[in-house]
Amino acid sequence: MRFPHRTGPIAIVLPLLLSMSLLLMLATSAWCDDTTIVTSPRDTRQYAAFALPNRLKVLVISDPETDKAACALDVFVGSNANPDNRPGLAHFLEHMLFLGTREYPEPDAFQTFIAKHAGEQNAYTGFAHTNYHFDVDREHLRAALERFGQFFIAPLFSKVYVDRERSAVDAEFHTKKKNDAWRGLAAMKQAMNPRHPLSRFTIGNLATLSDGADGEGALRASLVAFYRRYYSANLMAVVVLGKEPVDVLRRWVREVFSAVPDFDAKPPPITEPLFLPAQLPSRIVWQPVQEQRALELSFPVPALKPHYKTSPLHYVAHIIGHEGEGSLLSLLKARGWAEALSAGVGFDYSDDATFDVSITLTEKGIRNTDAITALVFQAIRRIGREGIREWLYQELSRLADMDFLFQENLPPMDYAKHLANALHEYPLSDVLRGPFALDRYDAALIRRYLLALTPDNALVMVSDPDLEGTIDAPLSQAPWFGTRYRRESIAPDVLRAWREAPITPRITIPAPNPFIPEDLALEPVPKPGRPLGITHSRVGPKDKPARILHAPGLAAWFQQDTTYRMPRADFYFSIRSPVANDTPRHAVMTALFTALARDRLAEFSYPAAMAGLDYALYPHMRGLSTRISGYHDKQGLLLARIVETLRQPEFTPERFRLAKQKLTRKLRNTREEPPYRQAFRELRGLLLRPHWAPETRVEALAPVTLPDLHAFVPELFGRLSLVALSHGNLRREKAQVAMVPLQKLIRDALPTRVPHGTITKLTKGVPRLRSITLEHNDSVALVYFQGPRRGFRELAAMELLEQILKAPFFHQLRTERELGYIVFAGAYPFLQIPGLLFLVQSPDTHPADLTGHIRQFLASGSDLLDNMREAEFAGHKSALITRILAREETMKVRSERYWEEIDQGIKGFDSRERKADAVRAITRAEIREIYRTRIRGEDKRQLILHAVGNREEYQARDEKNAVDAGSVIIRDVARFKREQPAFPQKDDS
Question: Is the peptide bond before 83 cis (omega within 30 degrees of 0)?
Fold first, then answer.
């Protein structure tokens, strides 16, 4: 897997890329008189950076084409500053800033304003950063900034909400207690230096966030003290993106943020190393919740921040994490020991960093972890002996330059969030380019970092679901998360073998990449006069995909991109077969076939991915689909190999056995997914036809053999239809040539129309209740209302109800009633059948009681709609229309919409415009009537889903008495679906 810290794979490109200095545009920065910000020449946005008198760093970005404005403020402090007696305080403070300020005291004031103006808002607390961010309709940026700025000037820290929000943080902690990423980290912390802040608990819960023995008000006092110590302007960086000129944005920032106090704060000093010398080498074997087996080697390394222009470990990770021929992963897979491998920087802070190698193991691999570790060290030693090569570094560097030149736009909020963080991490001149910089080949520096990747400096982490059965000694339990683990020393003879084992010749240095694009020229625009920079229609493209092939069983669409002007293209094709998903057995064999095809393609396709050309192959309700996306130049090579693999499957017994094990494990692990996801999956199972539950598919998969699969493939391809889309930097003639390999897939097939599945049509009036039991302490209540028919007006009505109800639902059930961390209300369509659902996940409330709270809210919703003024209703409509017609930031986003419209059979490629028109037509009286009849009245088609947590007191509760007598309990899903009618199948021909 490619190095996760970088955005770019490797390539050699046209001569225009050989000297980025000729291409890079310099935007004058007002931050320092002699500082310039390096930007891509294709970036048409205007940047200005400066510092306020209070030393708050500012970057403003003017984008006249944007339809969303955004802002992010990053505080250069996080959980690293938690007091010893207050774990989670920094995270708790992040929650509290949203709950009222002196100027806007209502606890939901900011969230309500943002929601009413087509926006989203969120925040996160990291180890060294706390980041607050939002987006909003572009016309309301100034007012949003005024409200947002008060977070950092005059927050209330209301005593009432200090007490209430503790429950939200505690509920968030409970959602993570069975998350294996958090549980593994908890085990890893047991090997860290206990004096290092990273070794401590960071989320917080009711125990750590209480007044305790210090007396009433002690928690609030700690909160205010932390705020006044660290939330200082000199530790803050703000990024604002809007449609206005930079001078206007600059003025707004000064008006809003100049009042942020400057305490001359200092980030908390870290004087302790992450690991003490005596703690390494060491091994921790821990027990995950899910059935997953993995080996991770983590090495503390010198600080990386000073070397961002060289990125020595990016080079090392590229070689160790390579997945092509001759790679470490290729050898491990050949031995049946591993399924996946990634390498890269793990923790990366100012004073500490780690380099991690993570390997997903097979059942055979978990029994050979010492041998696998030895091969990792052989790969590292191979780099040291013969792998530090300037040509390979330059290959990485040139592709990084290309990725910077042709980078696609991020959504405004994501871009602002990233840059606010980057202002603390990079010099101002490189705030945009820093993550792409690979400017200085330094063999000595690479070698110096390699010296840290030794057996004596390694923490070896092994996750083993069968741990209790493989280790006789008693297990320890990590605090907070309860992870069961055993920490052990590594025998001297094992360490010696890791240091000295001869390097196998089967691990080699990657060869030059054959997928490096050579043609990056942009095709001429059919209509003259279009600018070469990125432009965006605020409604959508005037030109739409055209059908270019009408062969029997093959429908193909094409559109040349004239908007984004990148040397990229997206190519999709879907093989629809009537037997792909008609039975559980066929469904799992279709999934096995696609998994094995991906496995066969892995070594060939990996260099393509590294050269900016990705693909995906996946099963779905009607068959299987492929997506190829990236630089257009070598797409034909990849497509030809994919088609050849599908046409001529050659699967070995060993690869079949491993693929079957992996699929079985994946299906079994669904029972350990977060509770709200299990509730959503159960809802899909009740409504979609066909739909096979994970346990049904596990049962169907068990007897399947390789001969069974080989016999199924001709049946899968015997009757089919094929649909394709080509969109991007291609002419029509080239797109037609690209379709030629697809015709080989249908050459011997009988053209067959394969309709969509159907949706259960809920009966009016009588709510249906389905209850499932979880292997998790949290519980979920989900209440779903189904629309009566397909249609854009019906979809628009449900989305408008979401727009109106989402924020008050969240505020009432999470903030006011403290029911849980995950609280959601939203439109939820199935195959264009509209729906509206309300969901709450709670650590301490039974689903029947949660349903009661949801019903109380729904009852109050009638008053909310009745009392809503026409101007407020018009504002909600405007916000929804803005969301629907939001700018498609990248060509891939637009391609995905086209593909979805083709799949859904939506003629005209104008679903967004038609839905927006439907929203415009809805009146306040109509939405009130829809709510009165379909949500509250006799016309409602309602389904209630209870996911009951694994708590002893819940199991004794009689579900019949937990809900009102009017609900009909669904005990047999198959019988329920047989007895319920279905909506007519959608004609997408």
Answer: no
Residue 986's pLDDT band (boundaries 50, 70, 90)? confident
The per-residue DSSP string of 786-834 comes to E-SS-SHHHHHHHHHHHHHHHHHHHIIIIIIT---SEEEEEE--BTTB-
Q: In terms of Cα–Cα distance, which of 266, 270, 268 is closest to 235?
A: 266
CA distance 519 to 524: 14
Mean of all residue pLDDT scores within the chain: 92
Structure tokens at 441: 């080949």
Give the whole-angstrom CA distance, residue 377 versus residue 727. 44
What structural domains does the chain harbor? 277-389+431-500 (3.30.830.10), 546-674+689-754 (3.30.830.10), 759-889+914-979 (3.30.830.10)
Distance, in Å, from the CA atom of 81 to the CA atom of 266, rounded to the nearest integer, reads 11
SS (H, E, C) 626-675: EEEEEECCCHHHHHHHHHHHHHCCCCCHHHHHHHHHHHHHHHHHHHHCCH
From residue 212, alpha-carbon distances to 70, 169, 181, 206, 226 in Å are 40, 17, 30, 10, 18
* Residue whose pair of structure tokens reads 């094990």 in the numeric block: 661
* Position 510 pLDDT exceeds 50: yes
Please tell me which residue in 65, 94, 673, 802 is annotated as part of the active site.
94
User: Could you tell me whether strands 484-488 and 282-286 are parallel, antiparallel, or unpaired per DSSP bridges?
Assistant: antiparallel
User: For residues 175 and 841, is the Cβ–Cβ distance under 8 A?
Assistant: yes
- Report the pLDDT value the prediction gives residue 702, as an integer from 0 to 100: 98
The helix-helix angle for 584-610 and 706-718 (nearest 10°) equals 90
Q: Is the peptide bond before 578 cis (omega within 30 degrees of 0)?
A: no
pLDDT at 864: 95
Q: How far apart are CA 948 and CA 969, in angstroms?
A: 14
Residue type for 869, please?
A: R
How many CB atoms are closer than 10 A to CB 735? 24
Between 957 and 195, the more confident residue is 195
Active site residue 296: no
Please tell me the distance from the alpha carbon of residue 593 to that of residue 880, in angstroms, as a whole number.
Answer: 41
DSSP per-residue letters across 713-724: HHHHHHEEEEEE
Question: Hey, what are 295's tokens?
Answer: 């080996």
pLDDT band at 255 (very low <50, low <70, confident <90, very high): very high
Q: Identify any residues that bridge with 344 across adjacent strands, giving them in sequence order.
A: 356
Instruction: Measure the CA–CA gap between 611 and 599, rounded to whole angstroms.
Output: 19
Query: Quick one: how far is CA 116 from the chain centroid?
Result: 25
Give whole-number Cα distances, 603 to 331, 594, 600, in Å.
Answer: 11, 16, 7
CB atoms within 10 A of CB 134: 28
Pick the most confident of 215-229, 739-753, 942-956.
Answer: 215-229
* pLDDT tens-digit map of 414-445: 999 999 999 999 999 999 999 999 999 999 99
SS (H, E, C) 166-214: HHHHHHHHHHHCCCHHHHHHHHHHHHCCCCCHHHCCCCCCCCCCCCHHH
Asked if pLDDT for residue 865 goes beyond 80, the answer is yes
Q: Which of 188, 72, 84 is nearest to 124 (CA)?
A: 72
Q: Which pLDDT tens digit goes with each residue over 365-377?
A: 999 999 999 999 9
User: How confident is the model at residue 839, as a pLDDT?
Assistant: 98
Q: How far is CA 166 from the centre of its chain?
A: 27
Nearest partner of 674 among 500, 824, 468, judged by Cα: 824
**Measuring CA to CA, which residue among 297, 644, 277 is closest to residue 460?**
297
246-276 per-residue burial string, b: 16 or more CB within 10 A, e: under 16: beebbebbeebbeebeeeebebeebebebbe
Q: Considering just the CA atoms, what is the radius of gyration of the chain in Å? A: 29
- Do 599 and 655 form a contact (C-beta atoms < 8 A)? yes
Q: What's the CA gap between 19 and 24, in Å, rounded? A: 9
Q: Average pLDDT in the 766-794 region? A: 94
